[in-house]
């Protein structure tokens, strides 16, 4: 199976879920180049005329840990993903774009979440909750936290576009007396 057939099969399977399939081959992105100009121009022209790259945090990764697909034509075709996550004041929003790149060609752009038209970014009150305050909240809501050794915390702060509120996911790793560990995730609304 050649690369084009493989990509077309993947695109056909994704069409039902995908907001935008890039039909042309002129939207390019080279792995780890951080040159998003073709993607930005495409999004402005075809998806969101108000798109401004400086409003987004971009992460790049490969779903195959930098492995590539060997095609019948004996060349390597890297598959990369770029996640453009909308940000305000250092908080990620649950809105953005997932860009799928096959052999340096942008082929699929998925929406992450949905932009709420009634959001007023000028009147968002940024929460000021410290990590220690979040840990105390967790301890106050779960009795296990008071009786089992805590070995680690991971705190992810974000703005939830669904409910238009700032939230934090606090993942707590516990260790039992027998040396086993397990994790629990707690979600708090930030005020």
Descriptive tags:
9 strands; 40% strand; alpha+beta; 9-stranded mixed β-sheet
Explain briefly what this protein structure is.
The protein has about 190 residues and is α+β, with helices and mostly antiparallel strands.
Q: What's the helix and strand layout?
A:
Elements: H1 3-14, E1 20-21, H2 37-46, E2 56-61, E3 68-70, E4 76-88, E5 91-102, E6 105-112, H3 131-141, H4 144-147, E7 149-160, E8 165-175, E9 181-189
Parallel strand pairs: 5-7
Antiparallel strand pairs: 1-6, 2-4, 3-4, 4-5, 5-6, 7-8, 8-9
Number of helices: 4
Q: How much β-strand is present in the residues?
A: 35-45%
How many β-strands, per DSSP?
Answer: 9
Structural domain count:
2
Roughly how many Å apart are the termini? 54 Å
Helix content: 10-25%
Gyration radius, rounded: 21 Å
**Looking at the structure, what is the overall shape?**
globular
- Structural class based on helices, strands and sheet pairing: alpha+beta
What number is the mean pLDDT? 84
The low-pLDDT segments are none
Q: What's the order of the H and E elements?
A: HEHEEEEEHHEEE
Q: Biggest β-sheet: count, sense, barrel?
A: 9 strands, mixed
Tell me what the structure shows:
The protein has helices at 3-14, 37-46, 131-141, 144-147; strands at 20-21, 56-61, 68-70, 76-88, 91-102, 105-112, 149-160, 165-175, 181-189. It is α+β, with helices and mostly antiparallel strands. It has 2 domains: 3-115, no CATH class; 131-189. Strands 1, 2, 3, 4, 5, 6, 7, 8 and 9 form a 9-stranded mixed sheet that branches.
């Amino acid at each position: 199976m050649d690369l084009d057939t493989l990509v077309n099969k993947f695109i056909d399977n994704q069409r039902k879920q995908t907001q935008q399939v890039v039909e042309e081959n002129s939207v390019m992105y080279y792995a780890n180049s951080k040159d998003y100009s073709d993607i930005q121009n495409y999004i402005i022209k075809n998806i969101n005329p108000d798109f401004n790259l400086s409003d987004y945090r971009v992460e790049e990764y490969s779903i195959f840990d930098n492995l590539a697909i060997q095609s019948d034509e004996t060349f390597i075709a890297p598959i990369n993903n770029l996640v453009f996550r909308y940000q305000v004041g250092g908080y990620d929003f649950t809105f953005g774009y997932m860009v799928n790149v096959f052999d340096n060609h942008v082929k699929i752009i998925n929406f992450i979440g949905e932009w709420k038209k009634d959001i007023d970014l000028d009147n968002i009150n940024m929460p000021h909750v410290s990590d220690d305050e979040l840990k105390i909240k967790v301890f106050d809501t779960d009795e296990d936290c008071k009786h089992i050794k805590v070995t680690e915390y991971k705190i992810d702060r974000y703005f939830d576009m669904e409910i238009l509120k700032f939230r934090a996911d606090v993942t707590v790793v516990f260790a039992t007396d027998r040396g086993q560990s397990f994790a629990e995730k707690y979600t708090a609304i930030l005020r």
